[in-house]
Specification:
With about 170 residues, this protein is an all-alpha fold. It is about 80% helix and about 0% strand. It contains six helices and no strands. The longest helix is centred in the C-terminal third of the chain and has 36 residues.
Length: about 170
């Protein structure tokens, strides 16, 4: 049987990073029950997949991570939240894949993700799911995005800087 080494590497890396994303989000993250707040580093392995393999693999990885994480927490995956995660992964993949990663690019990527996905796309989902008021949801999502934004920028930029040479050997 003939194996395509690139495809096998891509699937293996995506699977490993998906597992890391689940651990970083569901076991090491903080999400107070009944609030729209979530602080985690589950995006980080997916952002690295986006850098190394592109937006499609990043989106698949984040989708699987969200499904597994939901099932681990004992509830069914929400298709609207799943679409938000896929959108965020696509943004990271488009911004990072085959690009020169600069601090400006990282800031723009996560700023766009915070505004488009965390604030605009997830807010209606949370209003519908939890019957929160629009003002409460928008304010809490804005606070969540403002806290997560510097965490995402700093953590990705430093992890990327530390792992750039080993990652580039495989590209």
């Amino acid at each position: 049987m003939k194996y395509n080494r690139k495809a096998l590497f891509a699937l293996t890396l995506t699977a490993a990073m998906t597992a890391l994303s689940v651990v970083f989000c569901r076991f090491l993250g903080y999400a107070p029950e009944g609030t729209p707040f979530r602080f985690d580093l589950g995006f980080l392995p997916i952002a690295l997949v986006g850098y190394m393999l592109g937006p499609v693999y990043a989106a698949l990885g984040y989708a699987v991570a969200d499904i597994i994480g939901s099932l681990l927490n004992g509830y069914a995956p929400n298709p609207w939240i799943l679409l938000c995660q896929i959108a965020f992964a696509l943004i990271m993949g488009v911004f990072f894949y085959k690009k020169n990663i600069t601090l400006k690019r990282v800031i723009l990527c996560f700023l766009l993700g915070a505004v488009l996905v965390d604030f605009l796309l997830k807010s209606p989902v949370l209003v519908y799911m939890y019957s929160w008021t629009w003002s409460f949801t928008l304010w809490s999502r804005a606070i969540n995005a403002l806290i997560n934004l510097p965490i995402r920028i700093i953590s990705f930029y430093f992890i990327y800087s530390a792992l750039k040479k080993p990652m580039d050997r495989f590209l």
